[in-house]
Amino acid sequence: MRAHQIMTRSVISVTPDTSIVEAANIMLKRHVSGLTVVDDTGKLVGVVSEGDFIRRSEIGTGRKRGRWLRFILGPGTSASDFVQEHGRKVSEVMTASPVTITEDTALAEIVDLMERNNVKRLPVVRGDLVVGIVSRANLLQAVAGLARDVPDPTADDDHIRSRIIDTMEKNDWCPFGLNVIVRDGIVHLSGVITEERARQAAVVAAENVEGVKKVHDHLCWVDTMSGVYLNSPEDDELAKAS
């Protein structure tokens, strides 16, 4: 399998001048752990993630280095720490020039890049533009949904996947972080919904695409006020049976 067969196409981006507060609120509202950072032309310039908000002065989690360690590391490290803890814009805390992949990057290479660079997500680029993102969650979904003795995805499966995504993204009920995996005509839907009626709409949308044999629902419901989440009924039944 390759990146384009499991990636999330609906990528949420911010600009280098986006405020830290706004970026954090976007992550919370959209239930994502990272955002791509693009310039005015849409070119990828960085990635900002939950890890970039851990060491912050507002919550008293700034680094506390001893005097001797500060002497060894030098003033440059202290200056970088200060920017990370007090920066007001995304450009001041993001990872610049992030590792990227293309739509044709094989999953084995993706895993290797994640492990070697200690990252949890990789932007998928076509030239300078971001066309998707592959996260550890996408890989987990591939393992959970496709760990069976069936053929690798075919060209038809790729077309089915594209048609399903195109259909759903036109609607305001489209799940956040929608991911669609298709193998041998069997569809696995995952993502986050905040309205239970969106679950049936998503399943029906997939069922109406020609070539689909069966649809598995892995959509997670989240209450936007409390953050409480529930797995799909299908996943709950599988958990009880295991």
UniProtKB/TrEMBL annotation:
Keyword field: CBS domain
PANTHER family according to UniProt: CBS DOMAIN-CONTAINING PROTEIN CBSX3, MITOCHONDRIAL, REGULATORY PROTEIN
Keyword Iron part of the UniProt annotation: no
Protein name as catalogued: CBS domain protein
Statement: the UniProt record of this protein carries the keyword Secreted: no
InterPro entries found in the cross-reference section: BON_dom (IPR007055), CBS_dom (IPR000644), CBS_dom_sf (IPR046342), Diverse_CBS-Domain (IPR051257), UCP036990_CBS_BON (IPR017080)
Boundaries of every BON domain copy: 156-223
SMART domains reported in the protein's UniProt record: CBS
Superkingdom of source: Bacteria
Lineage of producing organism: Bacteria, Pseudomonadati, Pseudomonadota, Alphaproteobacteria, Hyphomicrobiales
Residues of the CBS domain: 7-65, 94-150
